[in-house]
Specification:
2 copies of one chain form a homodimer. In chain A, helix 11 packs across helix 12. In chain A, strands 1-4-5-15-10-11-14 form a 7-stranded mixed sheet, with helices on both faces. Chain A is α/β, with parallel strands linked by helices. The longest helix of chain A is centred in the last third of the chain and has 20 residues. At the A-B interface, helix 5, helix 7, helix 15 and helix 17 of A face helix 5, helix 7, helix 15 and helix 17 of B.
């Protein structure tokens, strides 16, 4: 079987990030404060440094990547664009399948693209210490890695159940010098309160966010800030280097444009990273189908309403305009931990509301079947999140075969699965369950948002 | 911190492997059969296919890499050569430290370089199924990966203690379609006999080799063969693509030659892969210091005699002329499982006997300290085996600083450590032990070889 990779020369690495907010065909719905009024940037300044907040609210189309950030990204970037020739051959499809390989970063996923940038901006602003939460562990590892390179302290609140199931994720973070504790922890009021009420709780992303934010706010020196690995505009912005590189690489490969662009979508960061530059092309007239893929167990874009909701379970964050299953939603324990999020990045949500993307949902058993086919043709073991994009790419390649069309399919290979082999083990031994969100559960979860503000001027 | 990588264009990938046997300043000491006479190639033909045996006994200097093998290697090759600028800066050394990054393969180490070649030659020869043994799991994973790409059945006998300690290695092999069983197993006479005598044995590489060989021999159809991941000439040959690429990349980086070349050494395959092309340069007059690094717990080259010994514990293989601690030697349970081998590849042993390389041994605690410094400067988590090469590179960089010399140091980054984080966890919690082979234990172990033939005409 032959393999083909398209390497972008280092000198051609993108020097600017792309901000989709500048091109969306409707004004951005701003986050709302606790009073229901639009949040003022200053209100976030105890949580994020002002240079990050400026990016968060910017409507500038192109934003310079600081040369120092670019130098650090060069450790693994430009990431290869690869063509899945062996899979094409197996499927006997006329489609050409390309994938952008983000698994090559030291932390094993696309997450360091934003972690390095966020750590750098915080350092520039005089911050000494960062806090964050992590579910499956990809973001926590990425931030620990970035803080190690840049010289910042790092504290990660890891959801208890993942902390216990994946002890090696903690080890990874410790190697990079971060402190990782199981959440709820005894280190914060929010953690202690929760433990008092529920001593045996498996924890949740919502509680972990509360702890990480409280930790940042309670540092009297003012030198600690909070970071987030997805959802927010600045995080998506940092990830657009994925799509900007891929766009150049497709041209090197002799392709005018992709016909289909695919990414798995949890909070939205890798999907946005790959797709936003192509959504721009679509806005300006190119014909491209753009597909965010989510799990049937957590079908935010495919089943949720587009409305204001909290970013966390406890309702501590500002209200974000997004597709949501309700902030009280607790998804089934699927292995793609990075896709178990009740909401969706506001910019991705806007693109969906405007019909620029065509969301789809897949069951995890189908995704693992696709991951197995992938490993046995293309040779690599993908993350459970990534398997959703692969499953969709395979479906699209088969469709192209039925239609006899030589489509160009591009997807984001967001991470490798070497730290998440337990799901494969379950699949191989026939113990992996299918999950689909039942309607009654969704209706019940949506009750939690019925009294929140609605989006005006859609 | 800036990072620098030197990418070899695909068109410049080496088209031939280099065979050190052609340039060694003394005749190669042939393997001996059970009768003490030189082994005839045909005697190996039930274990290996003839095309592999021809490579094993070849004294041709350059051997063509089949284009089909090259195409598969292209999935991850040419591998990057990187410069460790951040580490240099930390050490304030005038030395320039380069490392050849073999961690980028789908199995995570250099092992697939030979696994793909061996699987391909077997397939060409009409073989349908391969067997092998694996200790730490790197070789077993690599062979499973290669067999999956090429379309061969694969059965791996994994040493029981590793099988139990690293269940995810088995999962990796299964994903690629291989069958992996704990050794001793009930699948072979050798395994059953061992279990009868020692039902609770943790297993050993020696027993696993016996099982894998017996399995290959007992296939009545004649379509099964055995494979080995290190030690033998053809395995080392396949690995020389590492050094041949690195040699070209150093030139691209503007370096005339390395002053110091370093690789960790267990059976010898990654060390040989990087160093053999440079040993050739040394034979032809270049001044290069070449250092194989082994653990103090298993100091084959630094403490063992150069003599004939069996490749396995049970004494089933031909006798090989090599440095050895005695085939009955059982090393302490250090984390670098790939370096726990009593012998050393005959070609590496010859180079050592002729003074072409300068072996050194390091304790694992020092190695983990170096691995931690590496992760926090260069950003990546290395395999425990690789940490031995890093520890030596750091020592050499410090020496260059003391001497005020702008040396070029090159080492092999043989694999990543994401599947072996347990050792880091022990180190971080202060539970990692130092091991040094005591003299009385070595003397006792060497008794097992006192009646074996000696090397003539040294």
């Amino acid at each position: 079987m032959p393999f083909k990779k398209i390497i972008l020369p280092e000198k051609d690495i993108p020097k600017k990030w792309y901000n989709l907010a500048a091109d969306l065909p409707a004004p951005f719905h701003p986050p709302l404060g606790p009073d229901g009024n639009a949040l003022k940037p200053e209100m976030l300044s105890r949580i994020f440094p002002m240079n990050i907040i400026e990016q968060e609210v910017s409507s500038k189309r192109w934003i310079d990547i600081p040369p120092q950030v670019l130098k650090m990204l060069m450790l693994w970037r430009p990431a290869p664009l690869r063509r899945a020739l062996a899979l094409e051959e197996y499927l006997k499809t006329p489609a050409r399948i390309y994938y952008k390989d983000e698994s090559v970063s030291p932390a094993g996923s696309h997450k360091p693209n934003s972690a390095v940038a966020q750590a750098w901006y915080n350092k520039q602003f005089g911050i000494k210490r960062l806090t964050t939460e992590t579910g499956a562990g990809q973001w926590g590892s990425a931030l620990a890695f970035a803080c190690s390179l840049i010289g910042l302290e790092c504290k990660v609140y890891m959801v208890r159940i993942s902390f216990d199931q994946k002890p090696m994720r903690k080890t990874m973070m410790q190697i990079w010098g971060a402190r990782c504790v199981a959440s709820p922890s005894r280190d914060t009021c929010a953690g202690r309160e929760t433990l008092k009420k529920m001593p045996n709780t498996p924890g949740s992303l919502g509680i972990a966010i509360s702890e990480a934010v409280e930790d940042a706010l309670s540092d009297k020196s003012g030198k600690t800030r909070y970071t987030l690995g997805s959802v927010l505009n600045h995080v998506l912005l940092h990830q657009t280097i994925i799509g900007l590189e891929a766009r150049k690489q497709l041209k090197i490969a002799g392709e005018k444009k992709p016909d289909v662009v695919i990414g798995c979508a949890g909070g939205g960061s890798n999907f946005a990273g790959l797709s936003f530059p192509f959504i721009r092309d679509k806005i300006y007239g190119e014909k491209i189908e753009i597909i965010p893929v989510e799990p049937t167990a957590c079908p935010t874009l495919t089943k949720g309403p587009f409305t204001y909701d909290f970013g966390d379970t406890a309702g501590l964050t500002p209200l974000l305009a997004m597709y949501t299953l309700g902030h009280g939603f607790v998804p089934e324990p699927i292995h793609a931990g990075g896709l178990r999020y009740h909401g969706m990045a506001p910019l991705v949500s806007m693109a969906a509301a405007k019909g620029l993307v065509s969301p789809r949902s897949y069951d995890q058993v189908k995704c693992y079947e696709s991951a197995m086919l992938w490993a046995r043709t293309e040779g690599t073991i993908c993350a459970p999140e990534t398997s959703h994009a692969i499953a969709c790419a395979i479906d699209e390649a088969r469709k192209a075969k039925r239609e006899g069309r030589r489509k160009v399919i591009l997807f984001c290979y967001s991470g490798h699965g070497l730290m998440d082999l337990a799901g494969y083990d379950k699949f191989l031994s026939g113990r992996l369950a299918k999950y689909k969100l039942p309607g009654y559960k969704l209706r019940k979860s949506l009750e939690s948002i019925k009294d929140l503000p609605k989006i005006k001027n859609r």
